[in-house]
Design brief:
- The complex is a heterodimer of chains A (about 110) and B (about 120).
- Chain A is mainly β and about 110 residues long.
- Helix content of chain A is about 0%, strand content about 45%.
- In chain A, about 35% of the residues are buried.
- The model of chain A has no long low-confidence stretch (mean pLDDT about 95).
- Helices cover about 0% and strands about 55% of the residues of chain B.
- Chain B is built from no helices and eleven strands.
- The N and C termini of chain B lie far apart (about 40 Å).
- The model of chain B has no long low-confidence stretch (mean pLDDT about 95).
- Classes of the chains: A mainly beta (about 110), B mainly beta (about 120).
Chain lengths: ~110, ~120
């Protein structure tokens, strides 16, 4: 199975900060990566698919990049609504659509 | 509008089975897959498996092989996930999500399954 490793696991930041979260795959997944945002008690929300495609309705301050084994999610200017946990998920292999362990973005 | 509405919370004893339903509306059910994802209390997301609503093909997480079965009823646009031989570490919120091949864009509200003696 492909393993997905996110870093950092926790990130403290202030409103207006530029935030970057990294996701590494244990083998190449081309661009088959999605990013989700989850708030406590809520279902995850799709932000980015195919590594860099912005889901409809998602603010443009969110962007994704990368291919192969290394990917990043960037929030260009952190807003109060963005404090949440973020997950990556690989879709390369139909044997397992593995999630990363998550990155909690906290208020500094 | 696209909606996935899941069945209500369940409390089960160890060794029992649970079957969670996920009723889809607002789109052509057979044009997408359904993924099932669970989240134990305070933990991350765990992908459980996927079913094609078009042809019923399934793919399950290796750790759940033999204990999980995913099915669909296209006449009612409903997906089901059955988990057998429940253990305490199966206690989690279970989500269904519409899967379009590159991600899961619509999610159910979640179903809490508690396994306790």
């Amino acid at each position: 199975d492909i393993q997905m490793t996110q870093s950092p696991s926790t990130l403290s930041a202030s409103v207006g900060d530029r935030v970057t979260i990294t996701c590494r795959a244990s083998q190449s997944i081309s661009s088959w990566l999605a990013w989700y945002q989850q708030k406590p008690g809520k279902a995850p929300k799709l932000l980015i698919y195919k590594a860099s495609s912005l889901e409809s309705g998602v603010p443009s301050r969110f962007s994704g990049s990368g291919s192969g084994t290394e990917f990043t999610l960037t929030i260009s200017s952190l807003q109060p609504d963005d404090f949440a946990t973020y997950y990556c998920q690989q879709y390369n292999s139909y044997s397992s659509f593995t999630f990363g362990g998550g990155t909690k973005v906290e208020i500094k | 509008q696209v909606q996935l509405v899941q069945s209500g919370a369940e409390v089960k004893k160890p060794g029992a089975s649970v079957k969670v339903s996920c009723k889809a509306s607002g789109y052509t059910f057979t044009s997408y897959g359904i993924s099932w994802v669970r989240q134990a209390p305070g933990q991350g997301l765990e992908w459980m498996g996927w079913i094609s609503a078009y042809n019923g093909n399934t793919n399950y997480a290796q750790k759940l092989q033999g204990r999980v079965t995913m099915t669909t009823d296209t006449s009612t646009s409903t997906a089901y996930m059955e988990l057998r031989s429940l253990r305490s570490d199966d206690t989690a919120v279970y989500y269904c999500a519409r899967c379009f091949g590159y991600g899961s864009d619509y999610w159910g509200q979640g179903t809490l399954v508690t396994v306790s003696s």
